[in-house]
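Figure S7 source data.
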Amino acid sequence: MLSIRNLHASVGDKEILKGINIDVHPGEVHAIMGPNGAGKSTLSAVLAGRESYKVTEGEVLFEGRNLLEMSPEERSWAGIFLGFQYPIEVPGVSNVNFMKAALAEHRAHKGLEPLGSAAFLKLMREKMALVEMDASFSSRGVNVGFSGGEKKRNEIFQMAMLEPKLAILDETDSGLDVDALRIVGNGVTKLKNPGSATIVITHYQRLLDYIVPDVIHILYKGRIVKTAGRELALEIERNGYEGLAE
Amino acid sequence: MNSGITIINGRTQITGSGDSVRIDLPAGESLDLCLMQEPGGKDFEINLSEGAELGMTLICIGCPEAVNRMRINLNGPHSRVSLNGLYLLRGEARLENHIVLSHNCPECRSSQLFKGILEDKATAVFDALIKVVPGAQKTEAFQRNDNLLLSPQARVHSEPQLEIYADDVKCSHGATNGVLNEDELFYMRSRGISLAQARILQQLSFVGEVIEAIPSEQIRQEILSILEQYLRRQ
Ligand SMILES: Nc1ncnc2c1ncn2[C@@H]1O[C@H](COP(=O)(O)OP(=O)(O)OP(=O)(O)O)[C@@H](O)[C@H]1O
Ligand SMILES: [Mg+2]
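Tokens for the predicted adenosine-5'-triphosphate complex:
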């Protein structure tokens, strides 16, 4: 589904990703762990199409298409979703109008008419219930004044609305209290289907109790230095990243 | 009757002829107006007596060339003015608003909020003076001009000015020039909102404050639909 080959990326003349290789197949859950500043968010931003990161080498194929040639919106239509580590506030655009615009474009690209008002609102309510978000959030500006945890839930709500094939969740667990962690973790799991895949970026084992990974990659100074099964997360929790770099 | 002016609330006569408009608001009267900008522009002279209230919004969506001159006098205590403006200019359009708003007696309130979006080589002038005469204590005056510049050749000359001769007053003024927010655009695009639509949403949000302040649902809807049509041609 997703094939990252020898991916190098820089900001300005600073190289951040130094040859990443990852293959994700339908149905799989991959976790990416690694110390602060390793390049995890950079990788997710490059996959989502953030233009401030320049890809200098390598390629990324998504379902056989050259992802790096696609605009951010084309990637979204193709089924990629990035849950932001720091969700952006969009003042003046309400959650409901934001999702209406997003969903309408997704549907248009599938040759579908926009949902009628009643059907749309029903879908919103259903998906908000999945992450136990209060209906009052619909009319508020996107993420404006949301608490850290509310922003993360809103990310998963958006994911639920868009039903991506590949979700990349960048530290969706940070800032969540234990209940929210369970809600978000279970929410993501409910959204999974055999054709979809998830990349979870996290620092902690606890999210992986809910979203159980098939493989864990350690990203260290711009490179994947180790790939192993889920036992690796426990090892890191005990011993940190010391000794993994070699 | 002056063309381009819609009376939303109030029964005060608007006098003057052609491009000059005169409004004398008697004591206690209130008037809400919306003005759709026409080429050329208008001269306004507006006088408010005690306790009178004026709400006025100037809308200019894609007008080629216009100069407005406004003299607003708060002549009676407790009178209030809320003067807002919205302008969207592209091509070689040029809009000038020259405003002199005088607080001629104590305990009056005025606020001015002008927001503009400029593209191409468009130019906007916001030249607005608030005068507070000696003795006009307890004046509250607020003035702001915010612009979004979508092209490096677009120009804004923004000069909010204060001339205050009383000491017990609350006045604030300011101007900002900004560009579209890249983080917000990327966030919207990452959800499948196309760049063109994301830009429209951000511009609608920018001008929202001015439109929401218009006290007529029907006019708000009319303006929004003209605005959306205009923005879709970007
Ligand atoms: N726009 C930028 N300009 C300059 N440096 C940047 C930029 N974006 C990222 N970097 C640098 O690239 C490195 C990787 O950053 P990144 O955000 O990808 O790390 P991360 O692995 O997600 O870390 P964390 O666990 O703290 O979220 C850091 O040293 C960071 O300072
Ligand atoms: Mg990060």
